[in-house]
Design a protein that fits this description.
Blueprint lengths: L1 H26 L9 H22 L7 H23 L10 H22 L8 H16 L18 H9 L8 H4 L1 H17 L6 H20 L7 H17 L7 H21 L4 H16 L6 H23 L34 H13 L14 H11 L3 H16 L10 H20 L3 H23 L3 H15 L25 E6 L7 E6 L20 E3 L9 E3 L10
Antiparallel strand pairs: 1-2, 3-4
Helix pairs in contact: 1-2, 1-3, 2-6, 2-11, 2-13, 4-8, 4-9, 5-6, 8-9, 9-10, 9-18, 10-11, 10-18, 11-12, 11-13, 12-13, 12-17, 16-18, 17-18
Amino acid sequence: MLFVILAWCVQILLLSGIGWLVYARLCHLNSATGWCARDFFRSFWIGWGVLLAVAQFVTLFFPLKGLCLLLAGSVALPGLWWQARAVRARVATAAAAPRWKHYVFWILLALCALRLAAGLGMLGWSGAYDSDLYHFNSVRWAKEYPAVPGLANLFSPLGVNSTYLLYAAIMDHGCYYREAAWIVPGVFVVMFVAQLLWTWLLETAANQRTRLCASLLLAYALLQVCDTVPSLYYDRPAAICLCLAVLELLHLEPASAPPRETLAGLFALLLLAAVSVSIKPVGLVATALLGALGFVLAWRLPQRAAWLRVLVLPAALAAGMLARNAILSGWLLYPAPHGQLPVSWAVPERTASVEPGAVMHTVRNGYAMFRAWARQPGPGYLEALRGGPWQWLRPWWQKNHHAVELKLLGGGLLFLVLGLLPGRRRAPAGLLHFAVLLTGANLAFWFFTAPDLRFGEGYFWLWFALTGTLLLLRFGSPRHALERAGTLALIALLPAQPGWAWPENIGWWQIGHALEANYHTVQIHNGQQPPLYVLVPDGDDRAGDIPLPNTPYPQDALCCRVPGDLRQGFYVKPVAVTPAAN
């Protein structure tokens, strides 16, 4: 567990140092302008975005070896030094928070960090299905090779492009080798909890809507504290980034704030939204709406070409994502069947094969199966492919109608109706209305694409927090009394949260490692010389972290673009397509 906390400290220093170099330059921060905690949080998240944007382009040409981590550390050191100078010259805020709030902040943060570290510091394997299926392998490919053309032809999930896995590949070196699933997830939850607590309790510059939304989002953050286990699933990191982007939106005061603060808020907002999509594009609709609003607000700033300054890094993240998609799969929006490129390594659109696992090697059939599983998880998921929406909507409702996410949706709808009733409001709610709109539109997008509740979990909580904020603003409340009552309730109820029990089998200075599955060697009979051999896991489709190349579904149509050279990538021999395969 202490080993996990040490890894978090290293990552926080690394990312905040990198981020400060960009953030301070963008907003003209120096020892004369001072420093506040919001600057620290912004520099951390901006540092993550900068590192991901650079990693996407580096991995096109070079593997993410340990040298990349050393170079990132060397860049972070001057940033930390300049940030320390700004801290020493910090400018006092207009009103300091009461001392008791500082004590509450540190006590709650320490409790959450210790519980999270205990949950991630368990010995043994991760036990996360998709991590053993392809996450660990994606990390290993990124560390050993540059982006491999047509890698999705070897095993289709390997073509799923997520910057979260690239970040794991950067951190998975040295004494942390094969332990990314233990040291990577918790750092972002810790920073998420810390920023929400600080915004709610300590930030004197936060407006009322930002503080209320942060307090309601704390329930989602505590759920992650209690429910995080060693894995490389990236649904929650994507949701965290979008939640923080919305908080930056609510914090904006374009009419009254200094242009420099507005520019900093817009930059953090757009970068966090872009990072969310680069991790997993479930928040695509919300990001598009945020991007449109951010561009309009940036265009109105008095600074010359301010819109260009706030868009360059988000645009780099989008370009890197499209470039990696094009190389790994030959499709711009893989695994969605859109944007096929005329390259030899493009994953086939359909297949006529009826062999087990063959549909996993095509885009349209694979995407249809993915959506079918999201709509109707379980043994009968293929039934969702037949008929219209009513074929799967009723089983989906029967399975999920008791889920907390749908209760959050219903509660949010009630809050929205009550919050929009005519009446006196204590604060302007224009940006809040826009945030509610984009979250609702994103939930509709999630439902019609892949309505698995775990994919949309964070967006339901965000919907609940935003509509609850709208309701509280509508009626007004004695703010300070509510904050004190909420703080005491959190301290009292924290140990009673589901899953809060102290985990067993905790390692203090030793943690688990990626699974090494049993496997056998299979020769691919494609007629190439030298022949291609792949490793196939025994008795399961989860390969864990076994040597490369491996796949649970070997196919004889698979070929090396240059026989004997895995770096040059893979392609699949064309096969005849029949109408029955559609």
